[in-house]
Design brief:
Elements lengths: L1 E7 L12 E6 L12 E5 L5 H8 L9 E2 L2 E2 L6 E3 L5 H4 L2 H11 L11 E5 H16 L1 E2 L2 E2 L2 H4 L1 E5 L1 E2 L2 E2 L2 E3 L3 E7 L14 E7 L5 E4 L7 H10 L2 E5 L13 H4 L4 H4 L2 E4 L13 H4 L9 E5 L1
Parallel strand pairs: 3-6, 6-7, 7-10, 16-17, 17-18
Antiparallel strand pairs: 1-2, 1-19, 2-3, 4-5, 8-9, 11-12, 13-14, 14-15, 15-16
The protein binds zinc ion (ZN) (2 copies).
Length: 292
């Protein structure tokens, strides 16, 4: 079984919800039959990610994420980074320092999760985001590989090479149209298309993206479940997907599409149509089953 649980479902500016980061759990059996999954993967870990996971560890079924009354970061075996905005990477320093200094015995014996993304994201992630706080250690300068095992996904003629969980679930990344500096795709940002290689079933996770259904249509039509970025209000130059654009999707696609990365006004009456028209606004700390 493969499950997805949002630590938070909010936009970069949300205060009622935490940042849109998700925990993927891979199970040989199911959460009912085993107390913890066989493999774990975070999709992003933003500035409020530590608060999101701190709340999750107290929820039934997620006790394995706690050690005493704090988060046991050693239980997070892998992190996939969609892009470099702080709502997606701002918690990584805390996670890494925790693995080294709280639940590790110094940088030589630290627990090291795997960090996964494209080469350009991983290089920039260190050089332009994490290095300032994470390079200085007592007596030396550290590198990204002091904190993480690095998996840089290789780009091929058929797109990026997938990575796997439990040798059964394939995770394939695709570029998303998030920030255009000069043109489409020129600032690296990715979504995920997940396949259960036993059943052939799939799930779609958009990452941060402008409306680009033309490109996503084959994936979103086939998938059992879609998770799509949305912004609630229209905007003359959006960097996310306005809800009004998502309303133009075919009804059968909307019905299996869960909306996430939304702003704080989602409970306003004007958005009350969402649970009827879509699979609803994403619920934080709810375990969604992607594949049985
Ligand atoms: Zn974001
Ligand atoms: Zn973003």
């Amino acid at each position: 079984m493969l499950t997805l649980t949002f630590l938070g479902v909010g936009s970069a500016f949300a205060k009622r919800n935490f940042h849109s980061n998700a925990l993927i759990e891979a199970w040989q059996t199911s959460p009912e039959k085993q107390p913890e999954p066989d493999d774990t993967l975070l999709i992003d870990f933003g500035g409020t990610g530590p608060l999101g996971i701190n709340g999750l560890k107290d929820k039934p079924g997620f006790e394995y994420l706690a050690i005493g009354n704090i988060v046991n970061y050693n239980k997070i075996k892998r992190v996939f980074v969609t892009h470099q905005h702080a709502d997606h990477i701002g918690g990584l320093e805390e996670m890494a320092f925790n693995n080294v200094f709280v639940h590790g015995s110094g940088s030589d014996k630290a627990f090291k999760p795997q960090i996964i993304s494209s080469m350009n994201i991983l290089v920039n992630l260190w050089d332009t985001s994490l290095k300032g706080g994470m390079s200085p250690l007592p007596g030396r300068y550290a590198l990204l590989q002091d904190y993480f095992f690095i998996l840089a996904l290789r780009s091929t003629a058929q797109g990026y090479e997938p990575f796997q969980m439990l040798k059964r679930y394939d995770f394939k990344i695709f570029p998303t149209d998030h920030i255009r500096i000069e043109r489409k795709y020129d600032w690296p940002s990715y979504g995920l298309y997940i396949t259960d290689t036993e059943s052939g079933e799939t799930a779609f996770y958009s990452g941060d993206t402008r409306f680009d259904y033309e490109v996503y249509e084959p994936m979103m039509t086939k998938a059992n479940l879609n998770f799509h970025d949305t912004q609630l209000h229209d905007d003359s130059a959006p960097v996310h997907t306005p809800l009004s654009d998502l309303r133009t999707l075919p009804p059968e696609v909307k019905k299996k599409t869960v909306l996430y990365h939304y702003g704080d006004s989602w409970t306003d009456p004007e958005f009350s149509f969402v649970p009827d028209e879509f699979a609803g606004f994403a619920t934080p700390h709810k375990r969604y089953v992607l594949f049985e």
